[in-house]
Amino acid sequence: MVLSVLLACATGEVATVEAAQATAEAPPGVDCRTSCSLGDAQDDLHLSEGEIEVLLEDWNTQTLGDATIELETLLFYFQDTQTYLDTHDAPLDAAHLAFLRHELGRDQVTIEMRLLDDAGDVRGTLAASDIPLKQKQHIRFEGTGSLGHLETGGKVKRVGLGHLWSRW
User: Fold this and answer.
1) What's the rounded Cα separation, in Å, for the pair 41 and 156?
2) Which of 44, 47, 93, 127 has the greatest count of CB atoms below 10 A from its CB?
């Protein structure tokens, strides 16, 4: 069983996610050429400049720091939002603009994993390390002993103010 720990970029709290079973062997017919190298359908979805402007205008009237659908959408599409802010005068007051820029600057997450066997013994570890959001990673487990070379691949996405999504 693999236990992964993500330090939430918004709160600093630790969120744990347990995978049901993890094996060193991929299912038949699945390897890096047919699974992790494929694009993510969400990568092709973007907000238009008009959509971003409406979201910014609506969010500007809301309480700063509340996890509203407008703010969470702007953070989910962080690359589109950042590009818009870099090329347009945002319809935001100074406090909202500073808050949004601060949140958009939080573009990495700390991950740490332990590989446990059925008896609960640690069979491998991934030391805490910072990885960029939304970029595929291949990370090697250390201390695997007789298991040999083991690595995991995956990525972490920010899906809202205090929410991360991870697949490994």
Assistant:
1) 15
2) 47
The distance from CA 77 to its chain's CA centroid, rounded to whole angstroms, is: 12
Tens of pLDDT, residue by residue over 88-145, are 999 999 999 999 999 999 989 999 999 999 999 999 999 999 999 888 999 899 999 9
Per-residue pLDDT reduced to its tens digit, 22-62: 333 444 544 554 455 555 556 678 999 999 999 999 999 99
Which residues, other chains included, contact 99 with Cβ-Cβ below 8 Å and sequence gap of 6+? 64, 65
Give residue 15's identity as a one-letter amino acid code.
A
Residue among 134, 84, 144, 90 at smallest CA distance from 113:
144
Query: In which region does residue 80 sit, left (phi positive, over 0), alpha (psi from -120 to 50) or beta (all else)?
Result: alpha
Distance CA(110)–CA(13), nearest Å, equals 11
